[in-house]
Amino acid sequence: MKRFSILLLAVIFCLPFSGCKKGEEDPGISFKSRDGRVKGIWKLTKITETSTDVDKTTVVFLGVSSSSVTTTTITVDYDGTDMTKTDLVTTEASSTTVNDVTTTVTTYSLTVTINKDNTYSYSLDKTDKEYCTSDASTCTTFPSSNPVTYTEDEDGEWYWDDANDKKIHLKTYAPYFSGKLKKCSSSELIFESTWDESDKTTYTDYVNEGTYTGTSTYTWTKQ
To answer: What is the pLDDT of residue 5?
Structure first.
């Protein structure tokens, strides 16, 4: 009976506040709604992302079947300053396997401002730092005296992409600022996504099968 009373009290206390927990890592109770907590200036501080694309092709020619499989694995890691992207392409065909690895390192800075009128703006600055291919000796380091830089400033409208006003999936066209909002606190946002897709195309002498899977986590810190 005591446990029931505690639970009932928690529910009654939570009802007046639309900021009660919705995401897995949201604060248990907040005096601000998700609308209120998401507003402000945010800086991208961490990315962990992995995706795998498998493409298998089978061809029959003069009664002889041959297959090739190309697997592309992409990992992205960002520590708040440098973004490292690694592309590993593995091709298997005719009893041979070829691996091709490309790694790029970029100095990356991204800030998003979320306004209460459902508009947003973002500012992106990135500078190429290093580019490496499979042979580590072929790395190219971009000199600081002549950097390859890119800047972008855009704005638009943000909204919750959910039925019944659940406010779990937030939508913008700013980089890394969309998806399932796993955590929405007054100081930190964490977007989390998973995907698992497949397709198959079949003709008389040709079959192509593909799968695409991955996970990503984007962490933003209030400025």
So the answer is: 42
* Sequence-distant (≥ 6) Cβ neighbours of residue 51 within 8 angstroms: 73, 74, 195, 212, 213, 214, 216
Rg (C-alpha) for the chain, rounded Å, is 23
Spans of all domains in the chain: 16-222
Residue 220's CB: how many other CB atoms inside 10 A? 26
Which residues touch 96 (CB under 8 Å, ≥6 apart)?
none
Find out whether 95 and 101 touch, Cβ atoms under 8 Å. no
Q: For residue 171, list its beta bridge partners.
A: 159
Residue 6 has pLDDT above 50, yes or no: no
Task: Give the containing element (helix H, strand E) for 9.
Answer: helix 2-14
DSSP designation for 99: E
pLDDT tens-digit map of 123-147: 999 999 999 988 655 678 887 777 8
